[in-house]
Specification:
296 residues; alpha/beta; Rossmann fold; two-stranded antiparallel sheet
Length: 296
């Protein structure tokens, strides 16, 4: 069952879709996930929708949302700041915990790419998050961008764009808008995986916000809650070292799973490889039915 919902985040309407498994029984409280979309993306026709339906098929409730300024949510169109997305996620958690179908003590956060970075950060600052799954995420904005804009010329072009954005904002009070490819390059053959509602203009403020964003600084706070870092061994969009560094800084229990033979969008197509890895991790660390430890 899917239900379109709306809740407030800092006074802004946030649009979401709540997935409840058909097997849900009246009065039953389900474990749940908040599902976060990628860079300038959408909850619909996207990796986030694939993730939510996958979790629903396994017996979890799932709430996929559009961050403010994107998709069907309110706020200035396309204006994205990392800490605003953390706030949207925390407000989504507050709303979800109040729903009668949901166990408020068993709400995890999962995201892909940019949404994965927000998931890790949210888990690190909000103790209500029961577990975190990061798919091809990142933890250090400046280092991530250096990997995405390799070479002296590419890096100079990127940092010059940040400088132009700051100067434009100081002069006009308005953000400078640039192509999304200037911020996060994506090989042309992988752009087919972007959602139909994705934004293709990005503010330089967004890029600066990402540059300054460091989930690495708070990832250790997630422990002893479980954390899964899933990444592509040779990711051509988000550098693989980002998840490796997060793993090094995280507490336990944390697992780092590196996949080969798939793209930055590991659930695209049948996604069987990634699905099996995620399902195995969930069964061990965050099963639908909590295990009861035998006495003694």
């Amino acid at each position: 069952m899917e239900r379109r919902v709306t809740f407030k985040s800092d006074g802004i309407d946030i649009a979401g879709v709540l997935h409840i498994p058909d097997s849900h029984k009246p009065g039953e409280r389900l474990p749940a996930f908040i599902v976060l979309h990628g860079f300038m993306g959408s909850k619909d026709e996207s990796h986030a929708e694939i993730q939510a339906k996958m979790l629903e098929s396994w017996g979890y409730a799932a709430l996929r949302i559009d961050f403010r300024g994107l998709g069907e949510s309110g706020g200035p169109r396309g204006y994205v700041l990392c800490m605003d997305q953390v706030a949207d996620t925390r407000n989504a958690l507050t709303w979800l915990a109040e729903q009668p179908e949901i166990d408020p003590a068993r709400i995890g956060v999962t995201g892909h790419s940019f949404g994965a970075a927000v998931s890790v950060y949210t888990g690190g600052v909000d103790p209500r998050v029961a577990c975190v799954i990061s798919s091809c995420g990142w933890g250090h904005g400046e280092r991530k961008f250096r990997g995405q804009h390799p070479g002296e010329e590419n890096w100079r072009n990127f940092t010059d764009m940040l400088a132009r954005g700051a100067a434009h904002k100081a002069k006009t009070g308005e953000p400078l808008w640039v192509s999304r490819w200037e911020v996060v390059p994506i090989p042309e053959h992988l752009r087919v995986h972007l959602p139909a509602k994705a934004q293709f203009k990005v503010s330089a403020d967004t890029a600066q916000s990402m540059y300054d964003f460091r989930a690495e600084d708070v990832v250790a706070n997630i422990a002893p809650r479980p954390l899964l870092l899933l990444h592509i061994a040779e990711d051509t969009i988000t550098p693989t070292e980002q998840s490796i560094r997060l793993f090094e800084k995280a507490g336990q229990p944390t697992e780092l799973l590196l996949m080969t033979g798939v793209s930055h969008f590991p659930l695209a197509g049948d996604g069987a490889y990634a699905r099996n890895l995620i399902k195995g991790w969930l069964d061990k660390f965050f099963p639908v039915t909590p295990r009861v430890e035998a006495p003694g």
